[in-house]
Amino acid sequence: MATTTVTPFAARGGSFLVESVRAEEIFGPADLTDDQKLIGQTAEEFVAKDVMPLVAELEVHKEGLMASLMKKAGAIGLLGGAIPEEYGGAGLDKVSSTVLAEKLAGYGSFGVSHGGNSGIGTIPLVYFGTEEQKKKYLPKIASGEWLSSYCLSEPQAGSDSLASRTRAELTADGKSWVLNGQKMWITNGGFADVYIVFAKVDGEKFSCFIVERTTPGFSVGAEEKKMGIKGSSTVPIFFENAKIPRENLLHEIGRGHIVAFNTLNVGRFSLGAYCLGGAKKVLEISSKYAKERTAFGKSLSEFGLIREKLAEMAIRLFATESMIYRSAGMMDAGVAAAGSGADRTQHLMKVLEEYAIESSICKVYGSEVLDFVVDEAVQIFGGYGFHEDYPVARAYRDSRVNRIFEGTNEINRLLIVQMLMKRAMAGVLPLIPAAMKLMDELLAGPQPAEASTDRFAQEDQLVANAKKSFLLAAGAAVQKYREHLAEQQEIVAALANVAIEVYAMESSLRRLQKSATRLSESSSAVMAAAVRALLDDAADRVEKEARRALASVSEGDTLRTQLMALKRFSKRDAVDSIGLRRQVAEAVLAGDRYPFECK
After folding, report:
1. Integer distance in angstroms from the first to the last C-alpha of the chain?
2. Could you say which of 154, 406, 506, 543 is catalytic?
3. Among 154, 255, 528, 578, which one is least packed by beta carbons within 10 Å?
4. Domain assignments of the chain as residue spans, ordered by start
C-alpha cells in the first residue's frame, strides 16, 4: 500500500475560506514518494504503448477492443487502486489514486472508461458492500475479469437523480428483487459485467442494487452517438421484470442517496485529476506544434500571442494541480487519523463527506481548465486544429462532457455554497464568526499595514483579501435572503466562483512557498512568475464576482459602503503580467511540456 509522507494535517472541509494554512502543512506534487511516481510511470507507459496506437480503432468502436484494454490494465494492477488488498486490490491512498487517474488520461475515452469502472463503478462496493458482496465482486473487478458500471441517470432524471422512476419490488416469497425501468448515459454499459443500479423500492425508497449482466430481464441498448469520447461505451440499459437475489441490495433500503452522493464526491474529485492529465498532454502537443509550424518566415513559437497561450495553459494547470494534490493530501491525512478497526469504513465515508466542497471545486475548475486548454490548442493549430487527422480536434470534442459528468458544473457551484452554508449553520465551519470579525474590521477603518520582509508578503495579502471579499459578499447575501439564499442561483454561483478562486489562489501560493527552497533559482523564478500572474488575474475575477453579488443584494448607501470595502480588498500594485507570462512560456517551450512536473 502506497503511503503519503505529508505532515499530518487534515483541515476541516471549506476552512480555506476562514483559516490560513501554512505552506508546510499542504501536500504537493513535490511530496510524491518514489512508489507513487512509479505508479504514475506505469500508468503513463501503459497508455502510451498499449492504448494510443489503437486510438483510430477505438474511435470507431472496434468490437471488444476497449474491454480487452481494460482487462489488460487489470492484469497489471491498474484497475484495483480503490480496492483494499484483502480483496485483491492495491489499496492505494488518495494521493496514489490521484496520480493513477492523472496518468491514465492521455486518451480521454480510456480515462472515462477507467473512471467508470475503477472509480464510481467500484467505490459503492468498497464502502457500502457487505463482506459477502465484497468477496464475490471486488477480486474479479480488481483483476479485470469482471468490469463494472455505475447506473444513476435516467431519461427524465439527470441532475435530479432522486427523481428516479426505476422501481424495485420484493417478490412475495421475499427471496428476490424485481426491477423495472431504464437508465441512460451508462459508461461501460456496453461491455460491463456488473452494474451498480439505483432504483426506488415500491416506487418510493431510493435504494441501490448490484445487477449482473446475465440477469434475465436485463438488456443493453445501442451505443449512443456522442460528440466526443467516442471510444468509450455509453448506452441505455433496460430492466423488464429483471429478477436479482435479495442479497444484491447494496447498503440499506431508502439509503441509496448516501451511496450515490458519497460515490459522486469521489467521482468528482477523480474527474478533476483526469482533466489535469488530459490537459497536460494537450499542452505538450501544442508546444511541439508551435515550434514545428512556420508562418511569415518564422516559427509560431516566436509569436507573442502564441507564447501567451502556452503560458496561460501552464499557469491554469499549475493551479489545478496544486488544488488537486492539496485536497488529496488532506483526505489522506483524514483517513490516517482513523487508524484501523471495525469502524474504519464509516470513517472513510465521513472523510469523503468532509471534503465534498473541495471535490466539487476540483471538478469544476479542472473541467473548465481542460476546456480552456483544448480550445486554445485548436487556435494554435489553426485550420489543422479543426481537422480530424490532428489530435486536438478529438481532444476538443472529448473535453466538453466533463462539465456535465458527475453533476453539471452549475449543480456543483450551487452545492459548493449550499454545503458551506450548511456547515456554517451547524457551527462546524466558523464562517459566521469570521464575517462578524470582518464587520468589526471595517467599522474600525483602514489600519496601517504592517511592514514585512517576507518574499511573498504581497501575494499573501492578495489571498487574505480575496477571503475577505467572499465573507463580505456572502454575509450580505445571507443577511438579505437567509434560508432562501439557495433560490437565488445567480448570486450563489457568483459566491461559488469567488470561493473557487480563493482555493486556487491559496493552493498555488502555498505550493510555491513550500517549493521555493527546494528548487533551483531558475525553476523557482518560473514558478513564482506563474503564481504571480495567476493571483493577479484571480484577484480581478474575485472583485468582479463579489461586486456582481453585492449589487444584486444591496442598494443605496449600504451598497456604496460595501463597494468601498470591496475596493479596499481589491487594491494592489500593478504587475507586469505580460513579462511574467513570457517567463512561463519560455519554460514550456524549452521542454515542450508542462514545466512544473515533478520527476
Report:
1. 21
2. 406
3. 578
4. 15-146, 150-250, 257-323+355-408, 410-591
